[in-house]
Amino acid sequence: MATVVSSLSLNRDTELKSYLGLDTSDTSEDTYLDFLISAASEAADNYLNNPFTDDAGADIDIPDQVKLGVMKWILQEYQNRLPGVNFEKAGDLMIKYSTDTESPDEEIQERYWAPYRLLPGI
Q1: Which domain holds residue 36?
Q2: 122 lies in a domain?
Q3: Is the pLDDT confidence value at 90 over 60?
Q4: Among 116, 81, 94, which Cα is nearest to 8's?
Q5: Whole-prediction pTM value?
């Protein structure tokens, strides 16, 4: 069975750090990023309930859309790792974090993961 946890190919040092805008040579947050990869993959598996196998039971690749949802989940958690921080400002530059009433988790689930979700008993 090809679960997101076991089969997602997401390279922390090249793909994820680049996506997050981090220096790929900086290792100071590698442990935290590894934790986020694991947690986001588990969140995807819990929501998707999809073994990612074909009709013959052979593993299939995790779709890129699912991978992007995992990366967006990680971005959301990484940016909001400091409780109570809604924005950061440096001079004229301000980064505002999500304050939408719908949780970013729901947006990720609906936009990136829902097309691949298998509901039990159907």
Answers
A1: 4-116
A2: no
A3: yes
A4: 116
A5: 0.79
